Structures are given as C-alpha cells and as structure tokens.
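Recall the central idea of this unit: under ordinary conditions, the amino acid sequence of a chain determines the structure it adopts. In this exercise we apply that idea directly, starting from the sequence alone.
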Amino acid sequence: MPYGSLSLNGESLPAFAPAYSRAKGIFTDTTAVGMTYRVAASQIAHLVPDVLELEEEPLMTSLFLSYGMSPVGSYSEYAHQVEVTYKGEKFHFNLLFILDNDAAIFAGRELLGFPKVYGKTVIEQFTVSPHRILDNLHLFKNSSLVA
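Accordingly, the structure predicted from this sequence is:
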C-alpha cells in the first residue's frame, strides 16, 4: 500500500492555502506610542503565571501600535505587558494584545503564542493647549477618584 508524500513540517493545512505564513514579516509605516507606570504586585499577580517573579511594584508597559502595512495588511494594536523575572533574568510578560486584523491574531496566537484578541484601537493625533491640560489635572486632583 503506498504512502502519501506530503511532509508534515509544522505548517498549517491545507498546504496549498495555509492560514498564515512563516515568511519573515516586514512592517512599514509604523506608529508607536508607549507609556510605562508601576502598580502594586497584588493588583496584577492574578494575571501572571506562578513561575514568574514580580517586584513589589512591577513596571507595566502599555503600547499603542499602528502598522500601515504588514504581511497581513494594515492594523492597529494595543499591547499590555508587565516586567517579570524568570530564573534571574528580567523580561516583559505579555498580558494582552488587542488588535483589529484576524490574520494577525491567528498568526500571533497560533504561531507565536501571544495572547491576542479582536478589538479596535485608535491612535489619534490632536493638539491641546497647556491651559486645557492644567484644567483637567486640577479637576482630576479634586475628584473623588484620588484618595
């Protein structure tokens, strides 16, 4: 009895039309905005695997990314990360990615293991006067949100 000749090399099936490619990705016309801040470990520990160590106030990173072109077309993405230690080495653990491109979600989740979900993120550029910023800070400081 003869055998098939298709080599199972880890690519998705059907082989003639894979859901995603392992080709090297080239991203162009990219915009990125990031911010870092610290939180109490107790606020984030339930989202971090028990083999990863957190500082008392771990560094958090939020990234807003817009890709004008990628191997799967254009899309926007939000990434949320926390700094952890594993076997004495620090790195950023990815908590969540929110993006608006199905192919990028599948490739990121299935090929790379990133926690990607569908959602819409928008990066907008606008101009605000310094007076408006100070007014908003004053309102925030005097609100019930600040203990």
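The radius of gyration is 21 Å.
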